[in-house]
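Q: C-alpha cells for this one, please.
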Amino acid sequence: MTDLDALQPLSPLWAGRLHLMLELMATLAFALSGVLEAARKRLDMVGVVVVAFAAAFGGGTLRDLLLDHRPFFWVQDTFFLWLVIVVCAAAMLFMRQHHLQPTERAIVWPDAIGLGLFTVIGEERALALGQPALVAVMMGVITSVFGGVLRDVLCNEVPRALADHRPYALWAFAGGWLYWALRLALPVWLCISVGVTAIAGLRLLSVWRDWRLPAWRQ
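A: Here is the predicted structure, written as C-alpha cells:
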C-alpha cells in the first residue's frame, strides 16, 4: 500500500467546495497583505493592485506550473480576480478615509493566515494529482511562500521568507508534514483545521516571542 492509499478519502463534491472555500480565504488574506505592504511603501493605485495580485496568485501559479495543471486556478474561476480587485479598492478606500498608515506588524496577521491556508491548499492539490508525500509537502511550501516572496521583491524588500530569521517557510514545511500525517487517520476538515491553526499560530508565536533561526555572522 502506498502513502496515497492510506489517506482518508474525500468525496469529489465536498473536495471541490472545500478547496474553493479555502483558496478564496487564502487569496483574500494574501491580497490584503499585498495591499498593506504596498501602502506601507507608498505605492500608487496601480502599484497596490500589482503587488496584491502577485501576493495572492504567485504561489498558486508556480504550483500549477510545476504540477503541469491547467488552467491556472484564477483563470479557471475569474471570481478570484474580482475578489482581489474588490479587496484592493475597499482596503485603499478604508485606509484613506480613516487616515491609516499600515505598519509592518499589521502585515503579520494576514500573512500568517495566508501561510497556513496556502500550505494546506497546495499540499492537497498535489495529493489529489497523485503526487508522493514529499512532493506534496513541497508544493504546499511553494504555494504558501512564493506569493510573499514576489510581494516583498516588488516592494524592494529582501523577502521575509529568506531574511526575517523568524521561522516562516520552516513552519510551512513542518506543518505540511503534520497535515499529511493527520490525513492518514482523521477527517479532512479536522486535518485542515489543525494544520492551518498550527502553521499560522506558530508563525505568529515566532514573531511575538522573537524566535530566530541561526544566521551567518558578520
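A few notes: The chain has one domain: 12-209. DSSP finds nine helices and no strands in the chain.
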